[in-house]
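#lab-general

N.A. 3:47 PM
ok so I finally got the sequence cleaned up, no stray characters, all 174 residues accounted for. can someone with queue access submit it? mine expired

B.Y. 3:52 PM
send it over

N.A. 3:53 PM
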Amino acid sequence: MKRNYYPKIFFAVIFFLLLTKCSAQQSNDTKEIKKGKSMSEKVSKSDKDWKEILTPEQYHVLRDRGTERPFTGKYWDSKEEGIYKCAACGEILFESDTKFDSGCGWPSFYAPESQSRIATQDDYSHSMYRIEVLCSKCGGHLGHVFNDGPNPTGLRYCINSASLNFEKKEEQKK
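B.Y. 4:20 PM
back already:
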C-alpha cells in the first residue's frame, strides 16, 4: 500500500516557516528595545530593603500600587526644566519638555524619555479598566496612561509625584 507523505511534508514546511517568522519577529522586537538610551540591569529588592530606601508614601505608591491625592504631589504644577527619575531606582523616565497641565492634579507627560524605560500592563483594580505604567528597571508603579493627551502622541501619562525625583537642568551639567 502506497502512503501519501505530501500532506505531512506540506504541514511540516508551513510549521517551520511559521516558527522562523516568529523567531525573526522576536529578534526585531529585541532590537527595538535595545535602541533605547539605556539597557539597565533590572533592580530586585526585598520588601524590607524597599522600606529602608523609600519614604512610607513612596513605598505605598511604588510598591503597593497606591496613589496620592490629586493636587497634593510636589510636581503636579512644577514648570522647572529638567528630568524626572524613578524615586526607587533612579532610572530617567520623563523630561520636563514633555510635561503639560492636564488639569487632573497629577504630573502629566505626553511621552516617556524612552519607551524602553517604562512598561505597561492592564489594570482592572477599583472596578475599572486602565493601563498601568511601571518603571521597567525596578517594576515600581508610576501611575496610568490614557489616550486623551495632546499631540504629538495623544497620550497622557498621569504619574504620581511620589514615584518621581526631579533633577533640575543646571544640576545635570555638573
